[in-house]
Amino acid sequence: MENKKVEVKINNIEYTLVTNEPEEYVQRVALLVNKRMNEIGEASPQLSTAMKAVLTAINLADSCLKTEGVLDNLRSELKGYMEEAKGLGTELEEKRLEVEKLREDVHKLQIDLAKRETELSSLRRSAQQGRGMGGA
C-alpha cells in the first residue's frame, strides 16, 4: 500500500500522520488516544500535556499487554480444541469403518440365513414327500 497523510486531532492539537493504514482506522486510533488523554486530564487537571501523553501511553500499553495475554490463552485453547477435533475425527473414521464392517457381516449373515432357509425348505419338502410315499 502507498503511504498517505492523515490529519488527526489529539488533545486539541492537530497532527499530520504518514501511514499506509486506511484513514478510518487512523482516525479511530486518534479518537482512542484523545479519549484516554481527556480522561486522564479530567482526573488530574494539573498534569502537563507531556505527562498526560506518557500516562496515556502507559495505559494503552497495559491494555495491549493484557489483550496479548488473553489472545495467547485463546490461542492455547484453540490449539487444544483443534487437537481434540483431530482426535475425534480419527475416532469417527474408525467408527465409520467399524460400522461398514458390521454391515458387511450382517449382509453375509443374511445370505447365510437365506441359504439355510432354502436348505430347510428343501429338507421339509423331502420329508413330506417321503411321508407321502411311505404312508401309502
Please outline the major beta sheet. Answer: 2 strands, antiparallel
CA-based shape: rod-shaped
Count of strand segments: 2
- Tell me the span between the first and last alpha carbons: 107 Å
Please state the average pLDDT score: 94
For the largest sheet, list the strands in their spatial order: 1-2
Portion of residues in beta strands equals: 5-15%
Determine the fraction of residues in helical runs and give it as a percent range.
Answer: over 70%
Task: Give the SSE order as H and E letters.
Answer: EEHH
Give the tags.
rod-shaped; 2 strands; two-stranded antiparallel ribbon; mainly alpha; 136 residues
Describe the structure.
The protein has 136 residues and is mostly helical. Helices cover 79% and strands 10% of the residues. The protein has two helices and two strands; from the N terminus they run E-E-H-H. The protein has helices at 23-43, 49-134; strands at 4-10, 13-19. A two-stranded antiparallel sheet has the order 1-2. A hairpin with a 2-residue loop joins strand 1 and strand 2. The longest helix has 86 residues, at 49-134. The protein starts with a strand and ends with a helix.
